[in-house]
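User: Please fill in residues for this 876-position structure.
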């Protein structure tokens, strides 16, 4: 197998270098396979990032100087040789770098003194290379074996479990990798956390909600050795799991209920179905490989036409909403049409590459990637995978992409109901005319006989065609002009009867099957517009045509070529082939990226702390063998997400308490060695959900259209339905508890971030969120002290405690602590809380209104204090 990989590498290199001749070594060429400093390993990466975009990778080479080979540098450009091997003082390139002229200002960052020194020493050592170089190269990026040696481009191989000095601390194989590193640094695991800490941590991680006092008591009293495992099984089996973990996925998918781009930010009426798809998929533990395939190519797994589909086919179409999450301004008439279309495609490629590949592929849209070996052509090869469905030359606006879920049965039923309603309305029209005629005769009887003759003759004539005499009669007797709209003035019982018939027809029409639509991505095999590389990313400057493919750098591990058009299915099949390539189990990035994200969500820090950048600008893994073991185990477990999460949570690594070892915390303040639990700040949505749960107000209704947001009287975005007919802003319609649903169901408008979310670092989807940030700023404290939401929930919480425990303050305080902190107060806390209630009640009594209850307000203040405390906001 190893020999085959070496042969494949050689073939790939040959393919990139073309059919150029490998020249014999010249007298001045120095090849030192084990050189301390070589062009390929140390020098080329520096020049590639800073210089290649002007000196070698474009069709026109600045100054005639190509820096991609040592041979070219010796040969030089318009100003002569760039380097003189062995003579750094005579090397023109070093003078230009030292003077700051190269790279030019604005084209890149100046080289650091360390980088300059490295290049100088390399030249002084006669500028050695590791191998003979070709005499010529075509413009563009060349991928060398050194590029392929980067850790994330290597095949995932299952490492041996390392030995540890204290195997008794190992709960899972994971622990061996972590403990081995800790022991190398002279440390070991922190002790296991206590039961109350563990259940609160587990409920936060798996549900995003606090445990109830009853759950805590049951777990603490469970003395069976598998108590922790059974708790995890219960938490994973609950539907709250999908709601919690969907939020993680929706972040990187860029989920939003609006199109963004413009200030009008149009709503996406049916996007919520994709959100529900993610929640349902996680709850039923859909294997990750199928989860990926459905989102990238669900439509290619269903046979068109998309009519009368069974539920599983509809689900696959809904899944492709993943590829419709990028901001989309193509409905706007104010924007550059072609540019806006191409921005949608670019954002989609960015979302796909960041979530599945963990690479900054988007950097290659305009030029060769300056750090990772991603040629610009590779970017457009990847774009070609999606362009049949996102074809900017045959573009479909968001409304044109909607697929109706109306079945033939629905249409037949709707037609039957419509016919019945029309029958009622036809009968109503007959009656209406009868009532009008009857009342007309009554009014006509009030006229003289001569006047009646003139009026009757004029009745069927349009007013503009009447004679002056006829117009005069109708002007003199306006009551003759009885219409459907004025009938009530003459015969209210008749008008009421007609209204009942109209209402009956309207009610009947409400029984029609509701028509739902899917926000899907689809294509046909006829959508084969060629994909071109765009010069500097400009769609108006197409260059060479490219075919669909994955990344070239991975060719030595996984086949990157993708069929142009699969004749076995009605669409091109490109996305399905790409999805299967990603989930083949051989791809070096798919499982690593997902395993790392799961680790990040559970441990608070990724093994790779840049979860969407496994390239050279990202941070290498702190535990590379552990990451490979996790990735391989995930695939071996048949991509079972819940099993993977449970495995991590069963480990000693996860169950540790916060370390109190000063020596360890000094040596590892970022907990990069995982020798301690990590203090985690709860996210914005979790803060709101936990407060609602504790106050007893959480509405656990699942799925469906999003809970709307609106502007309040001071311009903040809050949950609510604005009553636009009220004539003034801020008037809110009754929401019947919908405003108390979990935050995952709250509308995500790109221009309308909910105020409480925004203050607590909720991400903007532009186009997605690769990693959440957490800040500690004054507006957070102000929101917790003065925000309407937190104050109302604290008051409701106090009312709940009052109802349950009446005048028993110690019991109220005990319950308060248990519901907020999952523990009882100690004696000092209990005494302080009791004293606070007494003093606060006395103070409030002095300024209370006639309807105020000082005791309730005092308890509400205490509730608010705990809900604003660090112990509540952080999970240990």
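Assistant: Residues filled in for all 876 positions:
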């Amino acid at each position: 197998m190893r020999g085959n990989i070496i042969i494949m590498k050689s073939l790939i290199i040959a393919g990139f270098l073309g059919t150029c001749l490998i020249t014999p070594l010249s007298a001045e060429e120095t090849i030192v396979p084990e050189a301390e400093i070589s062009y390929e390993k140390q020098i080329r990466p520096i020049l590639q990032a800073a210089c290649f975009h002007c000196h070698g990778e474009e069709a026109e080479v600045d100054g005639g100087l190509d820096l991609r080979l040592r041979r070219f540098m010796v040969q030089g450009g318009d100003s002569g040789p760039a380097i003189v091997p062995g003579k750094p003082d005579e090397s023109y390139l070093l003078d230009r770098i030292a003077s700051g002229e190269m790279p030019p200002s604005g084209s890149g960052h100046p080289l650091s003194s360390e980088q300059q020194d490295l290049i100088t020493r390399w030249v002084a050592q006669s500028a050695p290379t590791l191998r003979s170089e070709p005499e010529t190269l075509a413009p563009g990026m060349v991928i060398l074996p050194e590029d392929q040696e980067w850790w994330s481009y290597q095949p995932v191989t299952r490492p041996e479990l390392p030995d540890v000095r204290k195997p008794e601390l190992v709960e899972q194989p994971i622990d061996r990798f972590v403990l081995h590193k800790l022991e190398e640094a002279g440390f070991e695991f922190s002790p296991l956390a206590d039961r109350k800490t563990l259940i609160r941590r587990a409920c936060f991680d798996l549900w995003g909600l606090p445990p109830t006092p009853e759950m805590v008591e049951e777990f603490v009293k469970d003395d069976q050795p598998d108590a922790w495992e059974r708790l995890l099984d219960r938490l994973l089996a609950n539907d709250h799991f999908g709601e919690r973990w969907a939020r993680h996925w929706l972040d990187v998918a860029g989920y939003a209920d609006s199109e963004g781009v413009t200030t009008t930010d149009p709503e996406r009426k049916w996007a919520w179905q994709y959100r529900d798809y993610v929640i349902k998929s996680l709850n039923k533990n859909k294997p990750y490989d199928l989860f990926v395939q459905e989102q990238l190519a669900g439509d290619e797994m269903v046979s068109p036409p998309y009519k009368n589909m069974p539920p599983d086919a509809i689900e696959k179409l809904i899944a492709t909403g993943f590829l419709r999450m990028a901001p989309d301004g193509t409905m706007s008439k104010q924007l550059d049409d072609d540019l806006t279309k191409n921005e949608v495609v670019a954002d989609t490629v960015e979302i796909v590459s960041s979530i599945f590949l963990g690479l900054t592929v988007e950097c290659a849209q305009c030029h060769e990637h300056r750090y990772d070996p991603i040629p610009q052509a590779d970017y457009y090869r990847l774009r070609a995978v999606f362009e049949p469905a996102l074809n900017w030359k045959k573009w479909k606006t968001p409304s044109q992409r909607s697929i109706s879920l109306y079945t033939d049965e629905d249409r037949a039923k709707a037609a039957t109901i419509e016919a019945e309603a029309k029958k009622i309305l036809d009968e109503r029209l007959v009656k209406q005319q009868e009532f009008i005629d009857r009342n007309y005769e009554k009014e006509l009887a009030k006229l003289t006989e001569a006047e009646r003759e003139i009026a009757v003759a004029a009745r069927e004539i349009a007013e503009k065609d009447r004679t002056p005499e006829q117009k005069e009669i109708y002007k003199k007797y306006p009551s003759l002009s009885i219409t459907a709209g004025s009938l009530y003035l003459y015969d209210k019982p008749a008008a009421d009867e007609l209204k009942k018939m109209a209402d009956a027809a309207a009610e009947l029409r409400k029984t029609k099957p509701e028509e739902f639509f899917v926000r899907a991505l689809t294509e046909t095999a006829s959508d084969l517009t060629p994909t071109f590389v765009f010069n500097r990313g400009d769609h108006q400057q197409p260059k060479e045509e490219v075919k669909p493919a994955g990344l070239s750098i991975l060719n030595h591990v996984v086949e990157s070529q993708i069929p142009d058009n699969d004749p076995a299915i009605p669409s091109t099949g490109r996305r399905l082939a790409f999805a299967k390539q990603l989930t083949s189990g051989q791809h070096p990035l798919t499982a690593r990226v997902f395993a790392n994200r799961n680790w990040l969500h559970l441990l608070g820090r990724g093994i790779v702390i840049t979860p969407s950048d496994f390239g050279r600008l990202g941070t290498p893994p702190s535990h590379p063998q552990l990451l490979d073991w996790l990735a391989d185990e995930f695939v071996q477990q048949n991509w079972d997400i819940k099993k993977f999460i449970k495995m991590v949570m069963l480990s000693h690594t996860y169950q540790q308490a916060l370390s109190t070892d000063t020596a360890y915390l000094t040596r590892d303040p970022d907990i990069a060695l995982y020798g301690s639990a990590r203090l985690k700040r709860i996210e914005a949505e979790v803060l709101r959900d936990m407060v609602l749960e504790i106050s007893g107000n959480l509405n656990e209704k699942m799925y469906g259209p999003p809970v709307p947001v609106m502007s309040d009287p001071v311009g903040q975005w809050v949950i609510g339905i604005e009553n636009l007919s009220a004539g003034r802003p801020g008037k809110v319609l009754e929401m019947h508890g919908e405003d108390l649903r979990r935050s995952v169901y709250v509308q995500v408008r790109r221009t309308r971030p909910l105020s409480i979310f925004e203050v607590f670092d909720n991400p903007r989807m532009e186009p997605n969120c690769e990693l959440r940030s957490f800040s500690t700023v004054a507006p957070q404290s102000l929101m917790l002290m003065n925000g309407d939401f937190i104050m109302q929930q604290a008051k409701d919480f106090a009312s709940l405690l009052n109802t349950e425990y009446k005048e028993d303050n110690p019991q109220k305080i005990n319950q308060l602590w248990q519901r907020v902190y999952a523990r009882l107060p100690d004696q000092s806390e209990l005494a302080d809380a009791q004293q606070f209630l007494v003093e606060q009640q006395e103070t409030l009594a002095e300024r209370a209104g006639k309807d105020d209850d000082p005791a309730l307000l005092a308890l509400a203040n205490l509730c608010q204090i705990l809900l604003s405390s660090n112990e509540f906001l952080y999970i240990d």
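For context: Confidence is low (pLDDT under 50) at residues 1-27.
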